[in-house]
Write a structure and sequence with these properties.
Layout (H helix, E strand, L loop, with lengths): L1 H35 L8 H12 L2 H11 L3 H26 L1 H21 L10 H22 L9 H5 L6 H29 L1 H8 L52 E6 L6 E4 H6 L3 E8 L10 E10 H7 L13 E6 L4 E5 H4 L6 E6 L2 E2 L9 E3 L13 E7 L22 E6 L5 E2 L2 E10 L5 E8 L4 E3 L1 E2 L9 E9 L2 E11 L21 E7 L1
Helix pairs in contact: 1-4, 1-6, 1-8, 2-4, 2-5, 4-5, 5-6, 6-8
């Protein structure tokens, strides 16, 4: 009888022990959130561990995540971390039911992992970044020890025995039912307060952006030609709105940088006169406005990670010349410009490309407004004709002149190419893959791009038939994409539509399919449709 009764008690206490583990884990994250408000938001354990996971993820896996989850890849990672923590918290709670101290030690071990991740991040400000994980783990270990104690120690209350009080032998039901909700409520409160304080800290940056009035450009962009947008439903707008512009980066927490305190340092090899400039300094310089299409190297053939905007900024080459920098073609000792972001990201750009006359910019405005935070406010870098990972540093704060032989930036260390000019590509926007169409005239349309070279011709092929010339929309500049359309006389059956582009000068887009790693995807884009 005793064995049966003890077994019944065990089956009651095991789920409660698992719940204790979850509550302790929740408390750890909530307390860490609160402590991070006193340090910095990026020092929280989920952000730190997530960032460390991103840094250590092989390039093909990272590329797979971007391809399958798109801009939700960071959300998926965070949910994965939280799910893993929840499972481990449950296991620790169950283990602690029998080995109470071991359970508490397990919680502390996770605190050590979070602390190590925080201080090892490229943007770490020092040992204080470990505090959120350490304090959260200590509090969680104490709470787990307390809760498990209620499941393993009878309640002593006056003359009344635990059996009389709870009807069960060996654990304090009332004590647990009081302690568990108290831990939950306190954790919610701590987490909410921490979230509020972290948001409040970002208000200075938000206010600084709202107070920015962008000057009129000294060199405005020419108007977009009237015929640049084809009148075909389903084709991407020629200018991509800020809200719709693609985002690919490694930041789990979007940096909120106060424009009033932002500074950019220019230094390094071949810099005769190191410079430090402020945001106001940039606004007072000569500003240029340019239409430039930006492309991500993670864009698969036919992929969505490309967008066009009107950018406002100052010429980067002018600043470099003021600092005494010479490109390699003129005897300069540095061939690589390393841009550093406030979140520790590093990008490497050929100095020659920045200073060859193209509109390489330090950008302050996007489509008529200050840069959105998600796109790099207060300042980002942009170099036409290069993939973003070697040119488009967001939240930039430092530029160092060095050599490719001396330093490998973030992505190069992960097997991406050091140099990455944008490849000639084309895409079918409409009809969509597997569309069901009616017989007759069907408009096939899309975009093509070959930044710094321009698009001279676009051709469409139906099944294995001959290539047919598409109608090209007006070209804005050689740094923008170009739209095209083709009127297809659709006949019943299944069909494969393929597109290819020819850049100015006669080079035809290659048919050879390559993956995005190491220097961008190539190949022809095709869609399969059915005509009923």
């Amino acid at each position: 009888m005793k064995s049966t009764k003890d077994s019944r008690h065990l089956w009651v206490r095991v789920p409660l022990a698992a719940l204790s583990g979850l509550l302790a884990g929740f408390a750890a994250l909530a307390v860490a959130e609160l402590v991070s408000a006193a340090v910095r938001p990026e020092s929280g354990p989920v952000t730190a561990v997530g960032g460390a996971a991103i840094d250590r993820t092989p390039a093909p896996v990272k590329d797979w995540a971007i391809r399958n989850f798109g801009e939700d890849d960071k959300l998926v990672l965070q949910l994965g971390i939280l799910t893993t923590l929840a499972v481990l918290a449950v296991l620790i709670g169950v283990v602690a039911l029998r080995f109470r101290r071991a359970g508490a030690a397990g919680v502390l071990a996770f605190g050590v992992v979070g602390a190590a991740a925080a201080v090892s991040r490229p943007d770490s400000t020092g040992i204080f970044d470990a505090l959120p994980s350490v304090v959260g783990a200590i509090v969680a270990a104490a709470l787990l020890y307390l809760l498990i104690g209620r499941l393993t120690t009878p309640r002593q209350a006056g003359a009344q025995t635990p059996e009389e009080e709870t009807g069960d032998k060996g654990w304090d039901r009332r004590g647990f039912l009081v302690a568990a909700p108290a831990v939950a409520v306190a954790s919610v409160g701590a987490g909410a307060l921490g979230r509020h304080l972290n948001r409040a800290k970002a208000q200075d940056a938000v206010a600084s952006r709202s107070q920015v009035t962008l000057p009129a450009p000294d060199s405005p962009a020419a108007p977009i030609p009237p015929g640049a947008q084809v009148e075909v439903p389903g084709v991407s707008p020629f200018t991509t709105s800020n809200k719709s512009f693609y985002r690919v980066d490694t930041a789990l927490v979007i940096p909120k940088v106060d424009a009033a305190t932002w500074k950019l340092r220019i230094h390094g090899k071949g810099v005769a006169r190191p410079l430090t400039v402020t945001f106001d300094d940039l606004l007072q310089r000569e500003l240029i406005e340019r239409d430039i299409t930006l492309t991500c190297v993670s864009n698969e053939v036919g992929g969505p990670y490309i967008g066009h905007a009107r950018w406002l900024g100052t010429r980067l080459a002018d600043l470099l010349q003021e600092a005494g920098v010479r490109p390699p073609s003129r005897g300069g000792p540095a061939d690589q410009l390393v841009a550093r972001s406030v979140d520790g990201m590093t990008l490497g750009t050929p100095v020659e490309d920045v200073m060859d006359g193209r509109d390489a910019m330090l950008v302050v405005g996007m489509n008529g407004e200050p840069l959105p935070f998600v796109h790099g406010f207060p300042v980002r870098m942009l170099v036409p004709g290069l993939y973003g990972y070697v040119s488009a540093c967001k939240w930039i704060e430092d530029i160092e002149l060095t050599t490719f032989d001396t330093y490998d930036p973030y992505w190069v260390k992960r097997k991406w190419a050091r140099r990455a000019p944008v490849k000639t590509q084309s895409r079918i926007d409409t009809p969509k893959p597997f569309a069901r169409l009616e017989p007759g005239t069907v408009m096939v349309a899309g975009v093509a791009w070959a930044q710094r070279r321009g698009i001279e011709r676009v051709e469409v092929r139906i099944d294995d038939g001959p290539w047919q010339d598409a109608d090209l929309a007006a070209e804005a500049t050689i740094d923008t994409w170009r739209q095209w359309s083709y009127a297809w006389k659709a006949t019943p059956g299944g069909h494969t539509l393929t597109v290819r582009a020819t850049e100015r000068g006669g080079a035809v887009q290659t048919e050879k399919r390559t993956k995005t790693v190491p220097d961008g995807a190539s190949g022809w884009h095709s869609v399969v449709v059915t005509v009923d």
